[in-house]
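thought: fold this chain, then report.
action: predict
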Amino acid sequence: MPKTVTLRLDDATYAFFRDCAQADNRTLSNMIETAAKRHLESAYVGAEEEREILRDAPLMRRIRAGTRDAKARRGRMIG
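observation:
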């Protein structure tokens, strides 16, 4: 069953969401819900994917080595 959530937005953020919703022919609440879900789905992995990552020994070694290098400030940021 859908739940109602109160959300406080500054004027600029509200206008941004409103304009995006109008451009996509959606309601404001649907635009915010969809944007939040897309962001979170891309930012977090599910339980099965996490187990798969943790079982991948070569990947875990590279991740640990990268973490050590970052803590030691070795390497450089790219992006």
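thought: worth noting. The radius of gyration is 20 Å.
final: tokens above.
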